[in-house]
Design goal:
By secondary structure, the protein is an alpha/beta fold. It contains twelve helices and 15 strands.
Length: 415
């Protein structure tokens, strides 16, 4: 889906396919017919944007085979689909029965992560529509926060330099620029925008920037306009936005039974109380390279006084409320009371990005990868129900953007 900002920029809107499990090329193409085509038909969109997730083995296969890339682009085109962004955060097996902390490995201290990301850039350069200004790839924010020290920080920085060099080579070879966005996430080395400024300033911002996930922003208890201003002042571009909302509980002690229904074994659901708002970030120390909190009293976003690395841990610890939980919930269907979602943060972020004279970003991905682990009463029972839910989320997001003055430029119609 494409929309035109009042400033004249084309804004691409799609959904991220990491909600689907296929990790081989045949399975990925089959998923287009099972999900993406029905979503496009429901919306009347031509084209429908996809934020493809390609696991590392298939990314390597495609990067090594120009003919396979051309075939994949043809498979997309004949179905009325287009790709301007790839999700390069999960390396593999993202819909396995248990993922948890494995999603953060390999990290940016390794050549495996560098090679995977450059494979994705090579693939994307050949998938981009001819009229797309650029491509984007999202990736993890360096690593999980522990273990992390100066040696690991230096190793990651060297690979970021090599990444920028590799992206320059992709553009030189193909004529297509691709940028990589590091995605702040609860529990990682970079959890908040102040930590992003501390850890990522000085990298090549022509090719590297930030992927801003709006559920993660909410879990950090950041105010969207201030967060975006902080990134802008630091010269860190937002190259991609993941449109998402987190689970919220105003009174978690009283509502513990309702929250227990959201505990599940596949993904981490990092939980942050409002005390996390004190953690405004700071530079790495010279001795350790660790990105500390650095609020007025050196606050750390992952301090156990207001943070837990999973929802069941937060419940057992009886952390004080209110809570925001890293659990992506369907945008159009917030949880039943007494629980809620962080939609107000999402709306404030979209307004900060798009209500001005120019668009703050041109790649938007709806990223609700948790459909398969929602509480049973909310979980899709069939492929058709999942496709309908994805279409409803995209319609919701499109309507939010239209309310901010953007104009659809494809054939999208309100379902």
């Amino acid at each position: 889906m494409r929309l035109r900002h009042t400033g004249g920029r084309t804004v691409h809107l799609g959904y991220c396919t990491n909600v689907h499990s296929a990790e081989d090329l045949a399975g990925i193409v089959a998923q287009l017919d099972t999900y993406a085509v029905p979503v496009r038909e429901t919306l009347g969109a031509d084209p429908l944007g996809l934020g493809l997730w390609l696991a590392a083995p298939v990314a390597a296969e495609l990067a090594a085979d120009p003919a396979a890339r051309r075939r994949l682009r043809t498979e997309l085109t004949v179905r009325g689909l287009e790709v301007v962004t790839l999700n390069g955060f999960p390396y593999a097996a993202f819909q396995a029965p248990v993922v948890k902390g494995a999603v953060y490995r390999p990290d940016w201290t390794t050549d495996d992560r560098l090679g995977y990301t450059l494979d994705l850039a090579r693939v994307l350069a050949d998938l981009l529509p001819d009229d797309a200004a650029r491509g984007s790839v999202s990736t993890l924010p360096l690593a999980w926060r522990a273990p992390w020290d100066r040696t690991r920080a230096d190793a990651a920085r060297r690979r970021l330099d090599r990444l920028a060099t590799g992206l320059a080579a992709v553009e030189r070879d193909t004529g297509r620029p691709v940028r990589v966005g590091f995605e702040p996430e609860p529990g990682c080395v970079v959890e908040s925008t102040p930590q992003a400024v501390a850890a990522l300033s000085g990298m090549d911002t022509d090719r590297l920037g930030i992927c801003l996930d709006l559920a993660h922003l909410a879990c950090a208890w950041e105010e969207p306009a201030a967060a975006l201003e902080r990134l802008a002042v630091a010269g860190l571009p937002v190259v991609k936005v993941q449109v998402s909302a987190a689970l919220e509980a105003a009174a978690p002690t009283a509502d513990a039974a309702a929250l227990r229904r959201w505990v599940e074994p596949r993904f981490l659901h990092q939980t942050r109380t409002a005390g996390c708002a004190a953690a405004t970030g700071a530079a790495p120390t010279a001795a350790t390279g660790v990105v500390s909190g650095g609020g007025p009293q050196g606050a750390d976003p992952a301090d156990p006084s207001w943070a837990a690395d999973d929802l069941d841990v937060a419940l057992d610890a009886a952390l004080p409320g209110p809570w925001r939980v890293h659990y992506h919930v369907p945008l159009h269907a917030p949880p039943e009371p007494p629980l809620g979602s962080t939609l107000p943060v999402l709306r404030a972020a979209l307004a900060a990005l798009f209500a001005g004279a120019d668009a703050g970003c041109d790649h938007l991905d709806v990223e609700t990868y948790t459909w398969g682990v929602l509480p049973a009463a909310r979980r899709p029972r069939t492929d058709a129900e999942l496709a309908a839910g994805i279409a409803a989320e995209l319609a919701f997001t499109r309507d939010e953007l239209v309310a901010l003055g953007l104009t659809p430029t494809d054939k999208a119609v309100i379902p």
